[in-house]
Design brief:
Elements (H helix, E strand, L loop, with lengths): L4 E4 L5 H12 L4 E4 L9 E5 L4 H15 L4 E12 L16 E7 L7 E5 L2 E5 L6 E5 L3 E4 L10 E11 L7
Antiparallel strand pairs: 1-8, 2-3, 3-4, 4-10, 5-8, 5-10, 6-7, 6-9
Length: 170
């Protein structure tokens, strides 16, 4: 595993995961998203930007895990859904240095998330309630489940910004 990727298993408490799955189950899915605007295979997606509860519990857990001295705010949130044949292409989520991505897997499937780090290919298995935290400048892609899978590979993607507060010196 790379030191540039943080994997957090059992990210949400069971009751939080249950509520999150209910939110995902009630989403209006749209087919046609791509890793980049006009490149790659189309896959399913849904916007969840307006869900304040989800943003708050995600940030709270992130602060507890990464460290309370670092503070983040959610810039954008959406859900990706992939079935067989809907591989994403390598992309970065944002080019700004203070932006990070938090992926939260909502299903157990065999479609990994792949990262290109220092000339190496790193794969993370999508396990339900596993979070993956990384700088948004790292090239990555979602690999679709295999033909044998009958599950939708679902990941919540949060683009977060690290908040920097200057301390006034006396």
């Amino acid at each position: 595993m790379s030191d540039k990727i943080t994997v957090i298993d059992d990210f949400l408490r069971p009751n939080q995961l249950s509520q999150c799955l209910t939110i995902v189950d009630n989403l209006k899915w749209v087919f046609g998203a791509r890793s980049r605007s006009k490149e790659g295979y189309k896959f399913w997606s849904s916007e969840i930007q307006t869900d304040e509860w989800l943003a708050n519990i995600t940030l709270d857990k992130l602060h507890k895990t990464i460290g309370r001295e670092r503070k983040f705010s959610v810039i954008h949130a959406h859900v990706n859904g992939q079935t067989y044949g809907q591989d994403g292409i390598f992309h970065v989520d944002n080019s700004k240095d203070d932006r990070y991505t938090l992926l939260l897997y909502m299903s157990d499937t065999d479609g990994h998330t792949q990262f290109k780090i220092d000339g190496q290919l790193v794969s993370i298995e999508p396990v339900k309630n596993r979070a993956v935290f990384f700088k948004s400048t790292i090239s990555h892609r979602g690999v679709a489940p295999s033909r044998d899978s009958d599950e939708l590979r679902i990941s919540l993607a949060f683009l977060v910004q690290e908040n920097h507060f200057d301390v006034l010196k006396k």
